[in-house]
Write a structure and sequence with these properties.
- The protein contains 5 helices and 14 strands.
- It is α+β, with helices and mostly antiparallel strands and 224 residues long.
- Strands 1, 2, 3, 4, 5, 6, 7, 8, 9, 10, 11, 12, 13 and 14 form a 14-stranded mixed β-sheet that branches.
Length: 224
């Protein structure tokens, strides 16, 4: 899907004007009264680093979401992914402004006109295209929303789920990565898994969670 078909107002912003941007994913920063919830990435996305005789598995922690199906709207994708992955419905929380993330920096704050058809996202995250050559877009985009969960989530179509209590949000995102044993011992973090993580694994925010980390560290007012 073309990003500008989903959000025509984005065309007028200088970084995006005249560019070809493919919308490849919809995600959400999902929360309840007391906590935020993030996906623990599946094994096919893990990375391994070897140092001497030690192998460390890097496990991504990301937002809830996925790829838009053909003919599916942005909000239909968001609701479907939430129900498939968490087993609950979500209520959209409209953002006062949208943060544009490029090269893992907050490069602009956008004021998009809200509407029922095109609700205001929390973030537009630009990432490099996977391949080069003719016809390749200038950017790939993930659009992330802020949603409130209507019920208690469980990791359904997920490897696992990380629960971060609201009071621990700044502490968790103050670090670029967390050794698994430290995360499991933290009183504000709860990890629920459908399988085992390798011993010595390290958790690292990726994609939507990494972008959200930028907002937390910058002290952005996302809740007013």
């Amino acid at each position: 899907m073309d990003l500008f078909d989903a959000f025509p107002a984005l065309r007028r912003y200088p970084l995006l004007s005249g560019k070809k941007v493919a919308l490849v994913g919809i995600s959400t920063i999902a929360y309840t009264d007391s906590a935020y919830y993030f996906e623990v990435g599946k094994p096919k996305y893990w990375q391994q680093y070897k140092s001497d005789a030690t192998t460390t598995t890097i496990v991504g922690v990301g937002g809830i979401g996925g790829t838009i199906k053909q003919g599916e709207s942005v909000m239909a994708c968001l609701r479907r992914e939430a129900e498939e992955e968490l087993g609950v419905r979500v209520r959209l929380v409209l953002s006062r402004q949208t943060y544009l993330i490029h090269d893992w920096q907050i490069v602009d704050t956008l004021n998009l006109p809200p509407s029922k058809k095109r609700p205001t996202p929390l973030m537009v995250i630009l990432v490099p295209p996977r391949l080069g050559g003719p016809g390749i877009p200038d950017h790939l985009a993930i659009v992330a929303f802020h949603t409130r969960l209507r019920g208690m989530p469980v990791p359904r179509d997920l490897f696992g789920l990380l629960r971060v209590e609201s009071r621990a949000l700044a502490d968790f995102f103050s670090r670029d990565e967390w050794p698994l044993d430290e995360a499991q011992a933290h009183p504000g973090l709860t990890i629920v898994l459908n399988d085992q993580l390798p011993p010595g694994s390290v958790l690292r925010p990726v994609l939507t969670a990494r972008a959200f980390q930028l907002l937390i560290r910058a002290g952005c007012d996302m809740w007013s």
